[in-house]
Design a protein that fits this description.
The longest helix is centred in the last third of the chain and has 16 residues. About 45% of the residues are buried. The chain is globular. The protein has an eight-stranded parallel β-barrel with strand order 3-4-5-6-7-8-9-10, surrounded by six helices. A two-stranded antiparallel ribbon has the order 1-2. The protein has one domain: NADP-dependent oxidoreductase domain (TIM Barrel), CATH 3.20.20. Helix content is about 40%, strand content about 15%. It is an alpha/beta fold.
Length: about 350
Amino acid sequence: MRYNRLGRTGLFVSELCLGTMTFGGSRTFAAVGQVQQAEARELLRAALDAGVNFVDTADVYSDGEAERITGQALVELGVHRDDIVVATKAFGETGAGPNRRGSSRTHLIAAAHASLERLQLQHIDLYQLHGFDPATPIEESLEALDHLVRTGVVRYVGVSNWAAWQITKALGLSALHGLTGIASLQAYYTLVGRELEREIAPMLESEGVGLLVWSPLAGGYLSTRTSASGGRRRDQVSFPPVPEPRGAAVLEVLETLAAAQDVSVARLAIAWLLHQKTVTSVILGAKRLDQLSDTLAATDVTLSPEALAQLDAVSRVPAEYPGWMSELWSKGRREQLGAQRHPRG
């Protein structure tokens, strides 16, 4: 297991993270998973034994039940607080009324303290805005996050499901006003969903923001008959959307490569993400120990340059403007940089 810096911070997180969306299983989350306390404890134990030091949850997962189960599992396993990085998120609806959602100062501060109580913790290591709030000025949200950091409730802050322009605006405002900067983005990224590479990934690399990947298997799309996972969540909930026939073509190549290495398609798909330089950590969700054991083993998979090229060719997203124009018009300058980096002799 490798440990990567979270953005430009001094915090190191494992390249694989245990996601807890499967914990609890109330309302719409029942289709994702209905993992209860004893099962969750064993999943967490297996992750820790594999070297994982990073757990991600959210206040809306099963109406807060996922946070409660996560916190209790940490207590039952006797995990030392300094040995675990706990991330949670706020933004979604947590009750009736217009102020029980969004990224207002009122909601974020109340939500953070409610999460602490459910998690049985004194502080949250990484607190993330779970979505972009068009009703709240970014400055207000950033000030609320900064307040939580300065009062010791939160250590680092991040966002999830934000566009590139939203993140860069927030980074600029944070620098201008001396507020805590965004350390990470949690986003959807997978072999059958590489749209992030158009604008977001270059921005993250430029600005030193970490990338945490959710749904690396596209909601079970990349858990096929060659996977150890058995039944697929996608048979019940077809999310995230996967473009066809590109998805089928990706699966065909993955299955061939997986068979050649005698590993599951799921494990190989996660290994591909671990080979991408922008990725800080990949969030793994699981209902059972055999699922988690299979995907945790992605750290042992090495992809050859030929395999990476095959996967890149079949999964690459079509070029869009201004990307194709930039690629064409900047070619000469990129070649100059290459010559500078690799001088003759």
